[in-house]
Design a protein that fits this description.
This is DUF4097 domain-containing protein. By secondary structure, the protein is of the alpha/beta class. It is built from five helices and 23 strands. 25% of the residues lie in helices and 47% in strands. It has a 23-stranded mixed beta sheet that branches.
């Protein structure tokens, strides 16, 4: 059982197993262990009547074997999937003995855009809104398997797409045989959607304003700063996710191998890391739901002073440190491999923050501090527009 857990952790560290798959597999292992323990207890209780229940015990044994075989098959399928993902990643190994570097700029004047999609196979992506009306994409390119400048330039242009059509800006690359570090500049505007993706590279977003934003990388860090977004989803397989001085209405962030850090304002949140700490510092009193879950890391939460809160903490092997004045411990469980605490704190307000913090092998810490800045929660202008149109 312990070897299987270690193997799952190693697969996560390679950046090939999703958080959902890993947690599902761990929960399945726990259920298998619980089932075995239950079966052993039943066998001891039935030992005195073995001669009377021999037939029933044989049926139970057969059922156990069938369940074990089913679980083994499920594990094999997951590990086969992981093996295929590893092969896919290895296919991205580049020959470094032959390459050429080029620079290229895509630019469009007086651009009228409402949605943005940046999708790069290999390379870092930086996104920034600026005070000009032009769209500008700066590319630093390394083309592999050639050392000829013109051939490399032609290969890059033939394997990349820059379009601005129907109020949508799109830039994509289509070959694993080049690395494209990209800097995107767009006018100051609240966009309907922003999508930033790369297979291998970090993503840096600054001064972003949007209704909906999706950020995803397989191998790289994600950093979001000074941004106001209604809904944001951020995911990386191997890397940290860092939010700094941002105001996001709904945020979901997932990483398999890395830390999640938050400093800003949100209304609802869902943070998950398999192998990494989760650190959250809230800067206003408008938060409604905080969900944080990690397997091998710790969870640290800093709240504004006098926040009314209802919370639930869980851990298998870690401890809880709730440094909040005036809390009421409603339910507390301190078993050998399962700890749980439910608590609340009330003030003269109808607004409560609900906290769910689950650190399977780590500790949970919740304390309070001064707010950096008060911000009103973001309203979803797109939803309001749609509602008005329906009413008409």
């Amino acid at each position: 059982m312990e070897d299987q857990r270690k193997r799952i952790l190693e697969l996560v560290k390679t950046g090939t197993l999703t958080i959902e798959e890993a947690l599902t597999l761990l929960e399945a292992l726990d259920k298998e262990q619980q089932h075995k323990s239950k079966t052993q207890n039943e066998e001891r209780n039935q030992a005195e009547e073995q001669h009377q229940n021999e037939h029933n015990e044989q049926q139970s044994s057969t059922k156990d074997k069938e369940q074990a075989n089913t679980f083994t098959e499920a594990k094999d399928k997951i590990f086969d999937f992981v093996g295929g993902a590893l092969k896919k990643i290895k296919d991205f190994d580049f020959p470094l003995n032959q390459s050429v570097e080029i620079s290229h700029v895509f630019q469009q004047s007086s651009a009228n855009i409402n949605s943005i999609k940046i999708d790069v196979d290999h390379g870092h992506v930086r996104f920034k809104q600026w005070d000009q009306e032009d769209v500008r994409i700066e590319c630093e390119v390394k083309v592999f398997r050639t050392d000829d400048f013109e051939e490399g330039r032609k290969f890059f242009l033939n394997n990349s797409t820059f379009t601005l059509d129907d109020e949508q800006l799109q830039f994509t690359t289509h070959s694993k045989w080049m690395k494209v570090d990209t800097i995107v500049y767009v006018p100051q505007h609240k966009y309907e959607t922003i999508v930033l993706r790369t297979f291998n590279g970090s993503i840096h977003g600054e001064d972003m304003t949007a209704v909906k934003t999706n950020i995803k990388t397989l191998n790289g860090k994600i950093f979001i700063k000074d941004s106001e977004i209604n809904r944001l989803e951020a995911e990386t397989a191997n890397g940290t996710i860092d939010f700094e001085k941002s105001n996001i209405n709904e945020v979901e962030a997932q990483t398999m191998n890395g830390e999640i850090k938050w400093n800003g304002a949100f209304v609802t949140s869902d943070f998950e890391s398999f192998n990494g700490n989760i650190s959250i510092s809230l800067t206003d009193e408008y938060a409604d739901t905080l969900h944080a879950k990690t397997v091998t890391g710790n969870i640290e939460i800093i709240l504004p002073d006098k926040t009314a809160v209802q919370g639930e903490c869980k851990s298998n092997f870690g401890n809880f440190m709730i440094a909040l004045e005036g809390i009421e411990r409603m339910d507390e469980k301190k078993e050998m491999i399962q700890k749980q605490l439910r608590f609340s704190r009330n003030y003269d307000t109808n607004k409560h923050l609900y906290i769910f913090a689950d650190a399977k092998t780590g500790a949970v810490s919740i304390k309070e501090g001064e707010m950096d800045k008060k911000k009103e929660p973001i309203t979803n202008e797109a939803e309001e527009t749609q509602a008005d149109s329906h009413e008409e």
